[in-house]
C-alpha cells in the first residue's frame, strides 16, 4: 500500500471514530487527549521519530519494550496532543504522523482517545 493510500484509509477511519464517539454521547466541545501510536523493532529509528514528533509540537511519552506473541521484541511510544475532536485536525495530524513513520521506517499504529462524558 502506498503512503497516499494509507493516508486516505486513515482519514476514513478518523471520520468513523469521531462519528462513533459523538453518536455514543461523547461531548463534542470537550478537549480530547489524542494518543498517536508508533512501534518498531529498531529502537534508534523509533527514538529519531520521537524527536521529530516532539519538534512538531507533540508531547512524547517514553518508549516501552513489548514482547509479541511470537516472542519478537518491539518498541513503542505515543505522541500526544490535546484538542477538540475535529476530523480536519485529525486528518492533518495523522497525515503528518504517517509521513513521520514512513521517513523513519517505523509503523504508525493509529490513534486513540477517551470517551468524554
UniProtKB/TrEMBL annotation:
SUPFAM superfamilies membership? Hypothetical protein VC0424
Using the record's annotation, list all stretches that form the Regulator of ribonuclease activity B domain. Answer: 12-113
Q: Where in the cell is it found?
A: Cytoplasm
InterPro entries listed in its UniProt record? RraB, RraB-like_sf, RraB_dom
Q: Name one GO molecular function term.
A: endoribonuclease inhibitor activity
- Gene Ontology cellular-component terms listed: cytoplasm
Key words of the record: Cytoplasm
User: Which family does the record claim for this protein?
Assistant: Belongs to the RraB family.
| Assembly with partners or alone | Interacts with the C-terminal region of Rne.
Q: What does this protein do?
A: Globally modulates RNA abundance by binding to RNase E (Rne) and regulating its endonucleolytic activity. Can modulate Rne action in a substrate-dependent manner by altering the composition of the degradosome.
The name under which this protein is listed is Regulator of ribonuclease activity B
Gene symbol here is rraB
Amino acid at each position: 500500500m502506498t503512503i497516499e493510500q494509507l493516508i486516505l484509509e486513515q482519514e476514513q477511519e478518523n471520520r468513523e471514530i469521531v462519528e462513533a464517539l459523538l453518536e455514543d454521547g461523547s461531548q463534542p466541545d470537550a478537549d480530547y487527549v489524542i494518543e498517536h501510536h508508533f512501534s518498531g523493532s529498531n529502537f534508534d529509528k523509533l527514538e529519531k521519530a520521537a524527536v521529530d514528533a516532539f519538534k512538531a509540537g507533540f508531547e512524547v511519552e517514553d518508549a516501552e519494550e513489548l514482547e509479541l506473541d511470537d516472542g519478537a521484541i518491539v518498541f513503542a511510544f505515543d505522541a500526544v496532543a490535546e484538542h477538540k475532536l475535529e476530523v480536519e485536525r485529525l486528518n492533518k495530524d495523522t497525515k503528518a504522523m504517517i509521513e513521520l513513520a514512513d521517513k523513519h521506517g517505523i509503523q504508525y499504529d493509529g490513534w486513540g482517545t477517551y470517551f468524554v462524558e
